[in-house]
Amino acid sequence: MLVVLDTSVLVAGFRSKKGASNRLLRLVASGRLRPLATTALFLEYESVLLRPEHRIVTGMSEGDVQEALSALASATGPVDVHFRWRPQLADPSDELVLEAAVNGRARFLVTHNIRDFAVASDRFELRIVTPQQCLKEISS
Hints:
Blueprint lengths: L1 E4 L1 H9 L4 H11 L3 E4 L1 H11 L2 H7 L3 H14 L1 E2 L16 H10 L3 E3 L3 H11 L2 E3 L1 H9 L1
Parallel strand pairs: 1-2, 1-4, 2-3, 4-5
Helix pairs in contact: 1-2, 1-3, 2-8, 3-5
């Protein structure tokens, strides 16, 4: 199943071993879920996950984060941006996530911020789901 993970999902997955976001990352590691990302989106993942506030909570060094990102990169399908749909969303930083989902033809865009992407759902016939909703879809 091809999905695009919003940065909020990666952060939540790194920060808590018990939540739905972390379970999605474990499905990625096992090969049961294939995330898609553009280069720009993956660079955002790196920038955000390397922030001191996240590394303090996770107890990860910069090297640990880079190692985890390398593993994620090997499991992630690359997406080339053939068309930029900007601006579509209120938050310009969300545009990277939407572009990856639309250009990659993802089945789901997985986010904790459903409301931020709602306008794009109908426009692009894209399912916007929370990590918990994604897990339910996978198991059914």
